[in-house]
Write a structure and sequence with these properties.
single chain; about 140 residues; alpha+beta; 5 strands; ATP-binding protein; kinase; HATPase_C_sf; ATP binding; HATPase_dom
């Protein structure tokens, strides 16, 4: 009989800066306690970057839009998908040393074992990033 996977954890947050902290807390609290020392800091940082980008670039606060997060384990990784209703596509850039922004996806690229950008079936965009359970060992 095949192993039955865990049901993904799903959240929706309003497109407000305070949602970044709430999202970090929700994701970290959902990670199994035994994995927090191994994945907690990096997962928290990925959550911060992706949620911040979704709020800044993928939503219109005045329209009451939401961002969505899904967290699930699969194939030796913990996966985080952050989705927004925006039509734009995030772009990995290489800002110069004097730039005050533009490093979020560089950080995601550095931390994640794998990541991608996918259009959503109805509208919007999802950024999906995975952290390997076999890191550092």
């Amino acid at each position: 009989m095949p192993e039955i996977p865990l049901v993904p954890v799903h959240w929706r947050f309003p497109a407000y800066p305070a949602s970044v902290r709430r999202a970090r807390h929700a994701v970290t609290a959902s990670l199994p306690r035994a994995l927090r020392p191994q994945l907690g800091d990096d997962l928290c940082l990925l959550t911060s970057e992706l949620v911040t980008n979704a709020i800044r670039h993928g939503t219109r606060r005045e329209a009451g839009e939401l961002i969505e997060l899904v967290l699930w384990p699969a194939d030796g990784h913990y996966w985080l998908a952050v989705s927004d209703p925006g039509t734009g596509r995030p772009v990995l850039t290489r800002p110069d040393a004097d730039s005050e922004s533009g490093r979020g996806l560089l950080l995601v690229d550095s931390l994640a074992t794998a990541w991608t950008i996918r259009p959503r079936p109805t509208c919007g965009t999802s950024v999906i990033a995975g952290l390997s359970l076999r890191r550092g060992g």
